[in-house]
Amino acid sequence: MRNPKTRLGALALASVLALTACSFDSDTGGDTTAGRTTLRVANPTPVVSLNPYAANSADQPTLTVVQEAFETLVSRRDGEIVPNLAEKWTNPDPLTWQFTLRSGVTFADGTPLTSADAKASVQALIDGKGPLAGLWAAVAAIETPDERTLTIRTSEALGTVLSNLTLVWIAPAAKLGDQSFFTAPYGTGPFKVASFTAGQSVELVRNDAYRGERPKLEKISYRYIPEISGRVTALENDEIDVTWGLPPDQLTGLRDDDRLTVTSFPTYANYYIWFNSSRKPFTDPRVRQAMWHALNLDTIRKSLFDQAGTPAAGPLPEAVFGAAKQNPYGYDPARAKQLLTEAGFPNGFTTTMMWSTGCCTNGNSFADAMISDWAKAGIVVKPQELERATWLDRLLKLDWDSTMTTGSTVTGDADFTLARLYLSTAKRNGYANPALDKILLEARRELDQDRRAELYAQAGKIVWADAVGIFPLDLSGNVVLRKGVQGFTPTPNDLPDFAGVSLG
Length: 504
Prior knowledge:
Blueprint: H1 4-13, E1 38-43, H2 60-69, E2 74-77, E3 80-83, E4 86-93, E5 96-101, H3 115-127, E6 139-146, E7 149-154, H4 161-165, E8 191-197, E9 201-206, E10 219-224, H5 228-236, E11 242-244, H6 248-255, E12 260-275, H7 285-293, H8 297-304, E13 309-311, H9 333-342, E14 349-356, H10 363-376, E15 379-386, H11 388-396, E16 402-408, H12 414-422, H13 434-445, H14 449-465, E17 469-482, E18 485-486, E19 502-503
Parallel strand pairs: 1-10, 1-11, 14-15, 14-16
Antiparallel strand pairs: 2-3, 4-5, 5-7, 6-7, 8-9, 9-10, 11-17, 12-16, 12-17, 13-17, 18-19
């Protein structure tokens, strides 16, 4: 894997791709999809790593690609957990989960899948100490009684084992200690990585050893095109077959193009602005609440986010298990100033807000609108737009005042977002609340799903009332396809999956 300086250099060079979007494989030219077997994808956010076990284990660009090469023990389909590499599982007792792996499964290099690979993959995620490691804090032991049996023992009941496993990608145990493996990784999935240039491109080729239905595509070619206009032009000029995450003002014109299909759908994703609650003045919840009351979000949403989503009613999108509606924050500049005065800032203050390039729908315009509203309340917010690798590094180090981003509850389970991000031990946003910790840990231990939902509703209320962040929008997804792209099915996890696609 390239070192951080190399990745940053790659990202800096990525902007030229907006001018060279036609640099796809030679078999992808022409003005039609007929006869082609390479899907040309323009991803809106750079893929900076293909290692799903460490810092990028929850990074959507990484997971979008990784899901085509790796598989998980179980998957979520239509809201239900279903078998994948594990054909069945049992709970002999509340602290034990036993999984039976499918027989006859091989990795792309022909080596057989065994329980040792599953154990090593779960352990790699834990040892990677990335944003998903905390989901497995209760694991006491991982055992492999035989080649097809994996046993996970926990120190306390863990009601999230199955939903957590939907994000544990199974790789060959022998490769997990070799960082060079992640420059061209492979698993048991329908594709494998042929080449990867961090921040610029990923080339996938079909895994002919795949046990399932043989993909009709021979290749999937991802290119990062940072500029929205570059992606739209590439679509119109038949230089790409698919892209997503376009702002609403671009979709109207594309819907009128009979060469294209625009698909919109609800997702598990939302927009949020976090405050670093460990850094003054955001240590005071009144300051955080004032920041929210100072925003005229209804006006901003109508201007920037028509058809992009719906007003958020809580810190989780409504489709997520455990989401519950909360009382809305109204636009109230007088209340904002009152709260600031009570917190000792009658004349406001100066701070910063960071975000990554291309992170969010209409991100720069949204930042400008918020900064303008905050200025009216005496709060001067200096913008910091950063390359994604730099932003992620600073985010994890808590080296920021506030940050704007989008996120997805990829597992569809509230624990993935609420416990992963808001437990005191997570240290993701500087917020620490023992009462919230107690609720979240109880919910995580609870095996009764109805009781878990009740607890997550209580947890969401605390996060919302304490204004740990501002939650303006539950996001709708959109994918724009050329007419010949067939078989694409949108999923709410905000990870476009192209394994079942064909070009007609």
